[in-house]
Amino acid sequence: xxxxxxxxxxxxxxxxxxxxxxxxxxxxxxxxxxxxxxxxxxxxxxxxxxxxxxxxxxxxxxxxxxxxxxxxxxxxxxxxxxxxxxxxxxxxxxxxxxxxxxxxxxxxxxxxxxxxxxxxxxxxxxxxxxxxxxxxxxxxxxxxxxxxxxxxxxxxxxxxxxxxxxxxxxxxxxxxxxxxxxxxxxxxxxxxxxxxxxxxxxxxxxxxxxxxxxxxxxxxxxxxxxxxxxxxxxxxxxxxxxxxxxxxxxxxxxxxxxxxxxxxxxxxxxxxxxxxxxxxxxxxxxxxxxxxxxxxxxxxxxxxxxxxxxxxxxxxxxxxxxxxxxxxxxxxxxxxxxxxxxxxxxxxxxxxxxxxxxxxxxxxxxxxxxxxxxxxxxxxxxxxxxxxxxxxxxxxxxxxxxxxxxxxxxxxxxxxxxxxxxxxxxxxxxxxxxxxxxxxxxxxxxxxxxxxxxxxxxxxxxxxxxxxxxxxxxxxxxxxxxxxxxxxxxxxxxxxxxxxxxxxxxxxxxxxxxxxxxxxxxxxxxxxxxxxxxxxxxxxxxxxxxxxxxxxxxxxxxxxxxxxxxxxxxxxxxxxxxxxxxxxxxxxxxxxxxxxxxxxxxxxxxxxxxxxxxxxxxxxxxxxxxxxxxxxxxxxx
Amino acid sequence: xxxxxxxxxxxxxxxxxxxxxxxxxxxxxxxxxxxxxxxxxxxxxxxxxxxxxxxxxxxxxxxxxxxxxxxxxxxxxxxxxxxxxxxxxxxxxxxxxxxxxxxxxxxxxxxxxxxxxxxxxxxxxxxxxxxxxxxxxxxxxxxxxxxxxxxxxxxxxxxxxxxxxxxxxxxxxxxxxxxxxxxxxxxxxxxxxxxxxxxxxxxxxxxxxxxxxxxxxxxxxxxxxxxxxxxxxxxxxxxxxxxxxxxxxxxxxxxxxxxxxxxxxxxxxxxxxxxxxxxxxxxxxxxxx
Amino acid sequence: xxxxxxxxxxxxxxxxxxxxxxxxxxxxxxxxxxxxxxxxxxxxxxxxxxxxxxxxxxxxxxxxxxxxxxxxxxxxxxxxxxxxxxxxxxxxxxxxxxxxxxxxxxxxxxxxxxxxxxxxxxxxxxxxxxxxxxxxxxxxxxxxxxxxxxxxxxxxxxxxxxxxxxxxxxxxxxxxxxxxxxxxxxxxxxxxxxxxxxxxxxxxxxxxxxxxxxxxxxxxxxxxxxxxxxxxxx
Lengths: 637, 289, 234
Fold this sequence. Notes:
heterotrimer; A: alpha/beta; 6-stranded mixed sheet; 4-stranded antiparallel sheet; 12 strands; elongated; B: mainly alpha; two-stranded antiparallel sheet
């Protein structure tokens, strides 16, 4: 239903954009209004395309000017200088900018170090490089600037401003449609998961590199298309006018103002900022425009980094009501200003209302708590053992796995296996290498040497999402939920990208089963930040089994719990095992291991010290020594 | 002009960019703030120098007696604000971007968007030059290089030899343990940010002595200064000077060989390569062992 | 003397410690033993002021230090040898030692402290110009101990000092702890090497799942089967 609202909004925008030129013909509005609206549409396209990469995936870019500039100069050179067909050139501009995006992505996304601020600064370099190239080659610009003549267009679309409005509408609508489609499909959700926790996403089967490339490709494509279109309107383009900081700055301010995690956020921000700029300019306050923008940016970051969109959705009726009544009221009264001033006044009034104190954020868990039907404890048979060859052969075989971190030997040749249906307890003193082993088996680290076979397939060297698809899932000692997604959607992401991928809607429905299995059904609509540690750890488990693993690695899944919660977690682990998943349990609470494990493997200083029946192994003198230190009666050895 | 001469001229000019990068790099490395307002302070330093020298008849170099303490205060206040609102590394970038564009607009409104430069009688240094061996160096460039080297050496000395400096280093490496040994980071942070503001005042003065200013100058500096911060290694004091010299020399030679428009191309390609292959910077921090 | 009474400590909404009370008197070594995750490090970090308890008091020589910020603690006479050593790895041995004496009172006695530390650990004098990150594991542990001593503490909190060290080096570390204690410094020792820890302690507390389940004379604890059960889970 939420999605239908999105389609309705998009369709309304489309119809509105179609009606504007039609109505303009039959009314006596000045050409200025078409220009004003085209300006908004340009920024909608630029900001929305920026937001697909930087908002959705959190890879913050200062390089929007590069994509924009490629579009501008493609039009300037191919159409302006060589007279190619302008429609074709728009498409070429988009494709070239997309290729630039993919090139930057291929360079940056391979390295885990190029994140956050470092990625942002890397993208800052590209507009400078492009500016250098453009200025250097006379065939492009050579520093003189390029004239872009007025193109010929169908008589129906005359005057030029109307024609330009139609082109701008098309690109803006494309941008919004792409952003919306991504928002409601796996392409967007992969990015949300990457933004919240990239390593966890990869571990759940999200091919993160692929999805980041899609995002930066889309950013480039739309940025380039929009740049090519706007070049037609500019008439004359120059290096200084193109590769300055205006475009990168504005798309950031607009998206931050609107919302960075909603498809319509940049749209909202573009309307606000462009209207504001226009009002400042027409009121003779050009000298204030950067001050106002700067103050908005500073205040937003300090007071409301989540943006206006979130404020409006808290009380949509009030916000919508204030907007419409101010706009229509001023329009009917006609005692003050022009239509753009009415719009500015309406926007301003709405923003003021949005920032009034009160109006609670929706706490979804409370709304739906009563709707879930009891019996969350049923051991549903929702997971399946991976196709077995009939025998109880080994599921996982690790041979001589070693791992060095610099000079530190964390693992010094560990061999162990897990048979289908087993629950292996992996124990050992602090620093014995348990978590390192989990990280290697799940693909987060690659071993210095050794082999790991899963169902006979070598998995060393595979990316974590491949290993997830082959049937290994893991949890983290400190839960790493996707913090901006609800509990249900955390699980839905795991299903969407798991071994039996489904679409968003189906995944959301199926998520309930897994939440019930771990007893989280009643919290499905809460955000991870709203539930306690125990519940977050259960969420880790639900998310892991939702990928339908054959083998589940539980890394200290009970750390920090109180005794009652531990008992509950033990019960959940038993239920998961009953559903047919083999488990490796890394745990320091030995009473829990003794209660659950069918077999114990003891690690100490990176080697397997002992393994076997839980009761016997913990009496092994070597194990006793590893845990208690030198025995008073057995010095040294 | 020979390549050698171009390289030397470029390196001397680059040292000024190294000085501009110094405060930014130290703030980033030790306080985890990416403070774009640093450029605003350099701009203010430059304009105040022009204004004070022209209207009060001060010697341009002497204006730092006024501007350095003033911008020390500004830098310290901004840092205190970051501290007060517990601003994250990333948000500091956006907030300080806001402060920067506010400053740019304010400067435009006060001093207009036109180029501002000191009259020759106010700034006699601009016309002077010094012959060393076969080369003739403009005095402003030499002055800038001398200040840059002196300030980097001073910063390095403070960082390595004083308690406060070593406490800053310790804080950059392990905040929690540094605090357990009595290091109060807020005080140190405010002092460092203040010192960095004072260095911005000096950099602004040096720029004003050498060339005309416009309010949008910071946007011409940002790219090159960040290139130097990254090439030098974030928080690496000597590294910023070396990177400044290197970037300057490379720009000089490239500009001579292929024209001035090619130098940003080469410099930023260097940055991309450095980020991909040596994100910790080109210059080793310490000799180790 | 240090008196800790009725501490409840939480990480966010997860309670980590329940109702912890303990005392440490002058020049005594007190061990805190228990299995991994029983709350030992949490207790140390709470005494050090890195975590603020939700309930209970920490009193040092009649001064309530419960809410004292972390950077004031070393002035009150408490220094830490943290788990994993956590030296300032890019700085020299000498810099690390100097920073141990950062607080004004300790700085005034810097020369005296440095001589003391160099006498206790001559290796640190030899390696004064070396970067801390390049030291061997044992040397790093000595440096962590030396850095803490530079603060001229009344009480040392030592968290897993033998972790990850070779057996020979573990002997050296325990010798060093005894030497330091011999100089009159009280020590709270958190150690997974239970036997060794109890050997050099006068008293001990056994922690299990965030609560103190046993306390008393260290030599008696060493013989108590309950300690073995708590640590081994059998």
